[in-house]
Amino acid sequence: MSVKVVYCSVWVMALLVSALAESHANAVSCPQALALLNPCLAYLTGQASNVTVPCCQGANALKDMVKTKPDLRSMCECLKQAAAAAHVITDRAKALPGLCHIQVPVPIDPNVDCSGLLQDVKNV
Questions:
Q1: What's the confidence (pLDDT) of residue 111?
Q2: What sequence ranges are listed for the domain Bifunctional inhibitor/plant lipid transfer protein/seed storage helical (predicted)?
């Protein structure tokens, strides 16, 4: 699979990452996030019809790693850029949280204002 697909998957997952506590020890890097979401690429780009267990496991792991609003904003930017580069199918990205049973406090949208997440998201 291409790097574009990985980046798209990361965008979706980053948005899923937001149901977290205010404090956190280590920030997750964009490459780490993309690696966690790599199993979701086939679904997000239309190459597979269903999400896989490894995809949802990666999404949940990423969600658990993003602990602060600044981390959420950083992941949002990372995943937004990756999704655009990989040509992620927006409807599939929006469906991923529900399919993986993950609650996302931010909109999954290619036009989301990541910088506004610090003001808009109450509990990350």
A1: 85
A2: 30-114
**Residue (of 91, 94, 95, 24) closest to 63 by Cα position:** 24
User: What whole-number distance in Å separates Cα of residue 84 and Cα of residue 113?
Assistant: 14
Cα–Cα distance measured from residue 15 to residue 25, given in angstroms and rounded to the nearest whole number: 20
Q: How far is residue 119 CA from its own chain's centroid?
A: 19
Residue 9's pLDDT is 53
Residue 112 lies in a domain: yes
Say how many domains are in the chain: 1
12 within 8 A of 108, measured Cβ to Cβ: yes
pLDDT one-digit tens code per residue, 4-18:
654 545 455 544 443
Q: What domain range is 32 assigned to?
A: 3-119
CB 16 within 8 A of CB 61: no
Structure tokens at 28: 């997750």
Q: Mean pLDDT over residues 101-124, rounded?
A: 73
Q: Taking the model in full, what pTM does it have?
A: 0.73
